[in-house]
Structure to design on (580 residues):
């Protein structure tokens, strides 16, 4: 891979792409929206034709600040960033025959498969507009995947609750440190830099195009993570847990949250392996940068 | 009402707005997308601040050509036109405190209320992403209404299957003339010019803001309409009807169609009356312009 165009490079995931692409000596250019109005297919096409990348990575998305509750009051921009933009990128990339990848999300699922295992890429989303139980955010991310159905030369990389060793309002470990009350739910999660490396590996290892759950194998809970964080001295206060998801919803949230188990087998079968989730959390705590 | 800004004036409904506003001597300016990129909130705001309209009318939308099947393969643009644009217009109109109205659709319903009557504005849509039985088009129109929930100084005017006396590929009567096979289903429908007059009356009569079903009172079927058309000599060939909606779906359509009954009582209670549907069809046939 000689040259990459990155869309949404200034975001939390996009910054990690910039860092890892630099570290891996892969030439890239960040298309900022100010510089190139990538919502305009004609302008995007002209810019890409001039840039001639081997691949495009879309790390742009609308997540809501400080959390997904904010999406409920900015629905149009949430739709635009999460469902319309992937379609524009698809149109232009297919037109120019460019390989590309889209940062999607595992938040379009809730719970686990009936046999207790994690959802695979074959499973239909069960936390989206069509199942009518979701946050507006999750609804738009699922629509983004619908928009990309049968897209050619396209990776859809599902991220779940990013974390790493650097204190940041978007880091799950930082959130667990800072929230007064926690909800103990089982989740698959994604170490941010492992996630980004896996995405880039999709191109360099030429794995088949399509959807991939890019999560650390296994699952964990807020109680398990905070125990590790306490062991490492990152948390010293006493932790308070909500009694139930209902209590969490009534006291702390405006819109439902996705808590779910994901299977990362398709990715590992394709030859890309993330570290086991407990190990990834242990490492993040060990290497913590405040 | 001294001055109106019209968005989407070049479409089938927009053209009727241009015509009726002219006829009623209401000054207006058509914001064409070429001239003013109304998808950009900052540019729209600047243009509206300069124009200083009393009201804005959004007749822009993505319907698919020749029919809603086309939306299934252009999902991003369908979302952009039907769900994102209303949100952008809302944001800017609320910011500038401008009254405005949005051309929505009754196609977010299927069938009728359990008591056999038409759906009212209080009924939740039952043909949308959330009920997971809809075309992508209907899904986006329903999202457009979600985006406008609790909007201030905003009318949402639901149109259903426009028709009038002028032969046109978008006119329901022309469609009934030209399709080889017809589906006989019961529907509420909207005479295009009566619809547009009712929308404009919303402002001039200062009826309360909110959602209105703007359909001709009553309901009709393809069989009834084509009978009237045959009586008037507009149809001379023998008509062929699908045996069932299933046959229609398997032979003629890619995505489900909305067929539904709407109640227009809220509008008439507010003092705006459309003609009874049979009378409106009779008049269109009588005054037919080929």
């Amino acid at each position: 891979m000689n040259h990459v165009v990155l869309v949404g490079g200034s975001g939390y995931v996009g910054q990690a792409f910039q860092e890892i692409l630099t570290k891996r000596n892969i030439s890239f250019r960040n298309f900022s929206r100010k510089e190139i109005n990538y919502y305009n297919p004609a302008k995007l096409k002209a810019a890409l034709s001039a840039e001639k990348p081997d691949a495009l990575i879309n790390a742009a998305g609308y997540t809501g600040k400080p959390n997904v509750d904010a999406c409920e009051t900015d629905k149009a921009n949430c739709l635009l960033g999460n469902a319309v933009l992937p379609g524009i990128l698809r149109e232009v990339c297919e037109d120019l025959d460019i390989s590309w990848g889209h940062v999607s999300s595992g938040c379009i699922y809730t719970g686990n498969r009936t046999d207790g295992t994690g959802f695979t890429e074959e499973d239909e989303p069960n936390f989206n507009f069509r199942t009518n139980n979701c946050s507006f955010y999750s609804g738009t991310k699922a629509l983004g995947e619908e928009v990309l159905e049968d897209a050619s030369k396209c990776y859809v990389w599902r991220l779940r609750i990013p974390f790493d060793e650097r204190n940041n309002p978007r880091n799950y470990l930082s959130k667990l440190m800072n929230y007064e009350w926690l909800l103990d739910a089982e989740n698959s999660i994604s170490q941010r830099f492992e996630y980004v490396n896996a995405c880039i590996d999709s191109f360099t290892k030429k794995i088949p195009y399509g959807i991939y759950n890019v999560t650390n194998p296994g699952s964990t809970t807020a109680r398990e993570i905070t125990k590790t964080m306490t062991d490492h001295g990152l948390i010293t206060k006493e932790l308070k847990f909500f009694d139930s998801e209902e209590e969490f919803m009534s006291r702390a949230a405006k819109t439902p949250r996705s808590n779910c188990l994901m299977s990362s087998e398709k990715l590992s079968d394709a030859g890309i392996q993330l570290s086991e989730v407990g190990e990834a959390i242990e490492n993040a705590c060990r290497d913590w940068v405040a």
About this structure: Chain A has one domain: 3-164+187-218+263-275.
